[in-house]
Amino acid sequence: MPTGLDDHIRDMLAQIEADGLYKRERLIAGPQGGTIRVSDGRGTREAINLCANNYLGLANHPEIVAAARDGMEAYGFGMASVRFICGTQTLHRQLERQIAEYLGMADAILFAACFDANAGVFEPLLGAEDAIISDSLNHASIIDGIRLCKAKRYRFANGDMDALEDQLKAADADGARFRLVATDGVFSMDGHVAKLPEICDLAERYGATVMVDDCHATGHLGKAGRGTPSLTGVEGRVGIITGTLGKTLGGGMGGFVAASQPVIDLLRQRARPYLFSNSLAPPVAAGAIKAIEIARGADDLRATLADHSRYFRDRMTAAGFELIPGRTPIIPVMVHDARRAQELAAALDARGVFVAGFFYPVVPKSAARIRTQMSAALSRAEIDRAIDAFTDAGRALGII
Ligand SMILES: *Cc1c(COP(=O)(O)O)cnc(C)c1O
């Protein structure tokens, strides 16, 4: 029965296309890595990959693949249950204990993804009498999680500590019972690190709990990869850490919350994405356990990643590109105009370099960019080839 809904949606899609904002998924015909095989329908070709969250290069690590295979043989393919009915294997508790111990927290709870962890973490912990103070650049899943929670919402401009203090004062003046400051550890579009020492100082002054989403840091930043609390020297002062198993820690899937025992215990009782969604698949849990074990000891890979990041930043700056400065492996190459960002991405694609252009609404208008990400899976020769391709394409398009 035609209701007109499909026609209406077709119009919306046409508008997205007309605005130059339509996202097309390119196909990869093989595993994730420093180089990938790109499929274009006629065949496949190799490309250097500069846009994966595969910071330590663990996404196709042979020991992790083997651990996942062994896990599947010993524990089966799927659980066909949520955790509290019959979906908790020894593997799941082992992984939770390992995450908690790694991050120096009392306990941890797994979710299907960090998107679910962030969607589920706020609502059980805080009520209408409470306040959540959120950085304006926080990840979409934090924004959604806060929307699902009855606590009063306060927002501060990214990294603006005076604005944060104003909002803490406002929450106080409004009589908030508990206050929680929520921030990304690394802001993924710009690649900069949250000012955690200042945030913790303010939070302590105003009696607030700090929650850090460390998806773009756990495993590769800080001592032993313990993330931004370690990198910025505030370990032990962050009350709640959320993170993903879908980036540095093997790149499979799954998310978690690590926090105090009462927080984790209450989330097991009340977090809706935990209660009403399937358990992590055994091979995924087994692979993640191995990934964390490898990441903890991977000072060599972290050193390679940091070297690559410095080298790429230096040479791209010398070539005349405008980068956003920072100390993470997220290195945005600013183009400003959305169409030119897409042209540069296409020119790089033609030169065997796989990148993604980011433009409005993901970043502000006139802040379009190519967001590059370094990986320990890349060789220096591959990075050199990528820089040459950038230089060649940038000159051809008049960007440098
Ligand atoms: C990637 C990311 C998420 C989502 O993680 P998934 O496990 O992929 O759902 C949440 N927050 C931040 C900051 C992220 O970068």
From TrEMBL:
It comes from Paracoccus isoporae. Its cofactor is pyridoxal 5'-phosphate. The keyword Transferase applies. One of its GO terms (cellular component) is cytosol. Residues 46-390 form the Aminotransferase class I/classII large domain. Substrate binds at residues 139, 371. Pfam families: Aminotran_1_2. The modification N6-(pyridoxal phosphate)lysine is found at residue 247. The gene is kbl. InterPro entries: 2am3keto_CoA_ligase (IPR011282), Aminotransferase_I/II_large (IPR004839), AON_synthase_class-II (IPR050087), PyrdxlP-dep_Trfase (IPR015424), PyrdxlP-dep_Trfase_major (IPR015421), PyrdxlP-dep_Trfase_small (IPR015422). The keyword Acyltransferase applies. Keywords: Acyltransferase, Heme biosynthesis, Pyridoxal phosphate, Transferase. One of its GO terms (molecular function) is pyridoxal phosphate binding. One of its GO terms (biological process) is L-threonine catabolic process to glycine. Pathway: Porphyrin-containing compound metabolism; protoporphyrin-IX biosynthesis; 5-aminolevulinate from glycine: step 1/1; Amino-acid degradation; L-threonine degradation via oxydo-reductase pathway; glycine from L-threonine: step 2/2. Belongs to the class-II pyridoxal-phosphate-dependent aminotransferase family. This is 2-amino-3-ketobutyrate coenzyme A ligase. It comes from the Bacteria. It catalyses: succinyl-CoA + glycine + H(+) = 5-aminolevulinate + CO2 + CoA; glycine + acetyl-CoA = (2S)-2-amino-3-oxobutanoate + CoA. Its EC number is 2.3.1.29. Binds 1 pyridoxal phosphate per subunit.
